[in-house]
Design a protein that fits this description.
This protein has 105 residues and is α+β, with helices and mostly antiparallel strands. The protein has one helix and six strands. It has a domain of 60 residues: Roll (SH3 type barrels), CATH 2.30.30.
Length: 105
């Protein structure tokens, strides 16, 4: 009888611990790599040592040379200013995404 009581008590403790762990709030998701970009956004593209730097200029009117067409989980599609060429760029070939903000007036 004593052994059965110990086993039941152990099962209750394990069940309580399991329910407590699953009831916790999930950890904050990391932001995706392309979160600084939006479809239709004008960007600049520069090759540096075989990898690409993509720059955005916020608050600067004018044309930057490329437009973001599509953002996938592991690739980016850019269109050049002429609208003729589309570039499919895998995430591993991107060195940096640079977001430039000019100070407010």
């Amino acid at each position: 009888m004593n052994r059965i009581t110990h086993i039941l008590l152990l099962l209750v403790i394990i069940a309580t611990g399991t329910l407590t762990v699953t009831a916790q709030a999930p950890a904050e998701k990391p932001r995706p790599f392309f979160s600084a970009l939006k479809a239709g956004q004008p960007v600049s593209l520069k090759e540096v040592a075989g990898r690409y730097e993509i720059s955005t200029l916020e608050g600067v009117p004018g044309i930057q040379g490329y437009k973001v067409l599509e953002i996938g989980s592991d690739y980016l599609v850019l269109q050049d200013i002429s609208g003729i060429n589309e570039f499919y760029i895998p995430v591993w070939s991107i060195k940096a995404i640079i977001k430039v903000k000019l100070p407010g007036k």
